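R.M. (postdoc): so does anyone remember the format we settled on? I'll just put the structure tokens first.
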């Protein structure tokens, strides 16, 4: 097959029209700058939120440390009091029921306690706390006849 030439037509090399979809170097640099900026913004945002949570944790631990220090001071004060002679004397008189020379220990009693012993108004009822055990013949009857013996069940 041969080419058909059209008379009078000049074949010229026509320039191709520029496509509008081509990315230029400036657009590429702008896109890369935006991407890098977005990465930096996300990184800084995550660091700021991490710093806030770390500050909150630090504040919680500081409060707990202050509370424990106050508790330690209270316990040290109580320990010093317990080691003192004042506490020993208090305990000896109150709990130990001890007296000094020349003192008399008095146990107060109510007026009705010496006159009559206390009487219980509650009536006690006897009852069994264990389950009654069946007799041997009742066990054998239940094994042979699959039922309770006559007169029991």
């Amino acid at each position: 097959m041969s080419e058909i030439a059209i008379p009078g037509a000049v074949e010229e090399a026509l320039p191709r029209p520029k496509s509008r979809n081509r990315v230029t170097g400036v657009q590429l640099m702008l896109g890369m700058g935006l991407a890098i900026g977005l990465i930096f913004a996300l990184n800084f945002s995550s660091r700021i939120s991490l710093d806030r949570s770390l500050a909150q944790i630090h504040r919680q631990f500081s409060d707990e440390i202050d509370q424990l220090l106050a508790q330690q001071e209270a316990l040290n004060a109580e320990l010093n009091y317990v080691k003192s002679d004042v506490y020993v004397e208090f305990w000896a008189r109150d709990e130990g029921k001890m007296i000094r020379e020349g003192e008399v220990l008095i146990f107060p009693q109510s007026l009705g306690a010496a006159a009559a012993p206390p009487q219980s108004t509650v009536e006690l009822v006897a009852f069994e706390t264990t389950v009654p055990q069946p007799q041997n013949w009742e066990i054998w009857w239940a094994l042979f006849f699959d039922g309770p013996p006559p007169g029991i069940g």
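R.M.: ...and that's the designed sequence above, right after the tokens. Also worth knowing: The longest helix spans residues 25-83. The two ends are 118 Å apart (CA to CA).
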